[in-house]
Structures are given as structure tokens and as C-alpha cells.
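Table S5 (text form). Sequence records supplied for joint modeling of the two-component complex.
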Amino acid sequence: MNIKLDEHNNGCVLVKPETERIDANNAEALKIELSRLFEESKKCVVVDLQQVRFIDSSGLGALVSGFKNASSRQASLKLCSLQSQVKSMFELTRLHRVFDIFDDAESAFANK
Amino acid sequence: MNNEIDIQIRVPNQTRYLSLIGNIAEDLADHLQEYKGDREALAFHMNLVLTEAMVNAIRHANANDPMEEVVVRITISDNELVILIFDHGQGFDINSIKHPKDIDANLLDEHGRGLFIMRSLMDTVEYRKIENGNVLEMHKKLGC
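The corresponding C-alpha cell record, covering 256 residues in total, follows.
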């Protein structure tokens, strides 16, 4: 999976998976990338899912792993730009109660 | 006229084939002529259920053995969706995986959502031994 990284001027890192599909075949790559960022002491990570039209439980697990990693280091992991069916996955699994989800990256950056 | 479509696919026991099976399942929803419900949601759910079922077969039933194979059978009509996932592995205990009512207590678990998702989206989910292996069988009324 190609994952684009952009450092915002407020110190947040925008992580953008450049794939339409996150599933058991590629979720580990996202998990590893998020883990690396928090090990490098990044305090604010925003995952932009704009290109993702499908995510399975492995993809959700990778994001949960990142969230737990962030929490244990007093950092934050937020999500933005979810397509409607992806958002419905978070609601189905109740993860919309765990993650802060924003309509776009700028909203996520503004909410510190 | 019978609008039933019945397909069977055999793939190696590897996650690289998840998107192939998931996309086939999603495309099938587009071919239901009489379906009156949310077709986009049905297509997504079919993609998701097939993906989750295959991951269970690959990881748990077939123990990630790349030499094994998974057989998928999808039968879809205007009234019902039936999915069968066959594996030749040692299987797994479906009852050992947490039931949907426990999902709120385990929100930060990284694993275990697959079966919950299948049980939430399908009317019935059963896993049983058959000759030479196991089958995961799922049904859903489509109520056209």
C-alpha cells in the first residue's frame, strides 16, 4: 500500500493511504506506519481516508492499534474524509465512539 | 423468470485474492433486476461479508497455509443471498469468538470483529464440519 505523509505546519502529520481498499492483505502496512510515527514521538496524526471506499475488520484493527499506540504516548490519532460506506463500518462496529472523525483534514488539524 | 445467479470460485489460501472475491460479490448486487432496497449498501455488505468470511477461512480454518485453497459459492436471487465458504483445514471453533452483544465491552480489541460483522449483516451464520473439511454457510433474505 502506498501511504502519503505530509507534515502540517502545526506539527500534525497527515497520513493518506493511497488505496481504494484496506483489508487483511495490506492493513499490516498501515499499522506499521502508524506505529513508526508514534515511535518517532509524533503527537498528532490525522489519517485521511478520502481514497478508501472499502475497509474490513483488519483495516479497522490497524486503526485501533494506532489509536491505542497514540493514547499510550499522550498523542492523538484522528480520522477524516470518510466515504459514506466506510463511515457506516465505524458505526456498525461502534468505533465511531472511539475515534474523532472529521469531514476534512483542515477540521481535524483545527481541533487540537 | 428465475433471476438466480450461482457462481463458484476456487482460489489459493492467500489474502491477495480478497479483493478479487470481494469485487465479484459487489458486482453481483448490480445484477439483481428486481431488488428494491439500497443497492449500494447491499453491494458493500456483500463485499464485506465475503472478505471477512475468506479471512476466517485463510487464517483460522486453513491456518495461513498457502498450499491450501478456499472455495467460495455465491447464490443470489431477487429473494435470497446464500454464501458458502469451504475450507479443507482443521477448522476453528466459531463459538469461541465473542457474540455481538459483547462488542461494546471490547471496542479496543484489534481482532475479532469479522464474525460480529458477518452476524450483523447476514440473517444466519453457521460453521460446520463436512466430508473433507468445513463450510461456513450464511443466508440473507433480500425481501424484494
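Note: The domain at 3-106 of chain A is CATH 3.30.750.24 (Transcription Regulator spoIIAA).
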